[in-house]
Structures
1.
Amino acid sequence: MTDDPSRPESVPSTPSTRPEAVSLDKAAVSGAPSTNQTQEGGSSPWADAQAAAARSAAAGNGGVPLNSSQFSSSFQPQVGAVQSDVAQKKLVAGLLGIFLGSLGVHKFYLGMNQPGVIMLVCTVAGYLLFTLLAIILIGFIFLLLPAAVGLVGLIEGILYLTKSDADFQREYIVGKKAWF
């Protein structure tokens, strides 16, 4: 064995290096809670809890322990992600309303199936009636139905794009406002 104190082999294992008693400060004797108490192994409960938290954080973070700012920021809600999701939904729903509004695709995208089905049925029925009745020369009247539904989709698409993200989320995503 060498006399190098940094090597574990050179440290004698005598009872004096390992505290066996519980040390208490004056506050603990008087009945008040203390933060300086040590357990039988020589470590305090607070140090043990911190070490356990660091081990669990290191295990969940690829072996890299988190410092206090990383630890607190990892549990904060990601507000920017929610806002960008609403902005993306607003943009996609607006463009679908403008380009495929007569089919009600923007309604299906926002999860409003009943208004989407109504728009789709009106458009398809209008085109079918136009095709079937075109022979009699009155079928052109039924072209007004898909045109009107397409106009509704166009107006809704423009409304979606001009609303703020908060208004769009409140009215169309959370509130499920069906028309205009």
2.
Amino acid sequence: MTIAPSPAERRTETFAPWGGHADADELAHWTGVARTVADALAVDVVERDRSNALPVAPVALLRTSGLADLVVPTDLGGHGAHWETAFAVARVIARVDASVAQILGYSWLNQACAVFYGTDASHTRDVLARSAAGHWVWSDSFNPISPDLALVADGDRYLLNGRKAFATGAAVADVIVAGAIAEGGRHDGELVVFALDAGRDGIRHLGDWDNIGYRASASGGVEYTDVVVTDADVIGVDRDEPFSSVVTPGVQLLFGNIYLGVAEGALAQAAALTRARPNSWFLSGVDRYADDPITHRLFGELVSRTAAVEALADRLNRRYDEVVARGHATTADQRAAIEIEVARLKVVSTEVGLDVASRVFELTGASSTKSAIALDLHWRNLRTHSLHDPVDYKRIEVGAHFLNGTVQPVSLYT
């Protein structure tokens, strides 16, 4: 597979396809599709978690359901949905399977890198059209904590070498997005962003992901050995333009929605277990745990706090559509504003999500710790992924901006 045919000449015209807001029909349709997908995933989510198997069948489901092509414009073969809808879909799936929700969200955002980093409109449109035609699932190996990749000129092409950790979804995806500073050639000294077919010669998926949570996310590392990168693979060059870095608040907004979805899923499972729980605590004065005022109080607290996070997430999901609609006219101040808003969500969704996923056991009792029930899956997934980047630095970012108007340096985390 070649990501795109090499154009004879690259123009400098850019392409930003998103605009407007989702309407009620769009949201209802695609969240309905997401619930159907989530129901299918629920059948074997526990088994897949325990086996640490590659999520081949779940990713195939993302393709056949239409979700892989959700945010590609309709004139390019996609469904033309808005980011508000996409984040809502990810949240629904995260209630059941945060690993698959992560793969799907990353696919949209990595696919969108063709827009965020793109410098040639015809090339960007061609990449998105080919993606929709093939129902491609996208991934990346951009982890900035790993050593940088080496991209060295070899005639009129480049050779890519190095290793990246935590390449979520790469082992089951069609496309891997990566970046490296070119040494020599036409891009000498530039940070080049490129998209490679995941099975290209020289790409090795390490299969070294074996953590307590997110076990079905295929988050192992990727090793590159003399991987050929041609001009056709390049989707853009990172020139520190504000719009290109709007992808990072999008990633953090995805995280906030997934954490919220995990909390909602934990509450839903806890409620079902509580309703089915026989008898009651002997001091309660009621016949069922579901009628115990202490049970009501704790559910009331956790549900209310989760609803507050939901309100913030819904507002920011809609706001993100407004931000990306500006395209390459986006200013540094506008980019900073959405980053700060999303950082607030990251703080509260992490805190509330972890608290909810842990304290539901107080509602469901010792019997709910049985392995067969797998109520712990929600907490393990959230505990694992919430360590992606330290939430304390998000708190600092929000506080410093509130007090002094300070804006953090743009990075793949801020």
